Amino acid sequence: MTNILLLGATGRTGSSILSQLSEYEHIKVTAALRISSDISRLSGTIQTAIVDIDSISSLHHAVAQADIIVNAIRLRGNIAPTALVDLDKRIRKAASPAKTPLIITIGGAGSLNIPNGKRFWQDSAFPRRTLPRGIAHAMLRNYLDESYPEESWTYLIPPPAYISTGPRTGYYRRSAPSNDEREFLNRSISYDDFAIAVCHAIKERWTGTHLIAGQ
To answer: Which domain range does residue 91 map to?
Structure first.
């Protein structure tokens, strides 16, 4: 049995992942909630835990038994550039030293590589309303690449056209990272198809950075 802790379970991406994980045997999922009333936003009978992501002690109780942590939290607003790095650090500090979980993070298109050593958040085409999150994701991608061996983390990046109402086709295409990821900017994927890739990442224990788009 693989124990999964899903952070951001009530968000649109988290909900899609949670729904599709229910189709897998030998996986036990705990959905992390901010407050107990958030359980009304979930469907079916699901094990839950109340987690304050700003508290290492609160995170510790939730992550102690987790084999894999899926971080589908989508921080909004004018967040600090280091917000996602800081969250990852808290999750790692909260984990038991005797049991190091694989952390699978849902990435952001702002971290995509474009020419001249830049990231997509620095391009004029990047939406200004999500600029803080784009910067934070680029910093997180750098931090993971530079700070930890790939076997301890997975970073899955959807394309800019990440469509909440798109159809579930059952297909996706996984691409390796490169120094020029501009081609990926023209791709798209639905939340449900992206969730299929996340489930495969869990089952097959993918590691490192992967670009996930529709066929």
So the answer is: 2-213
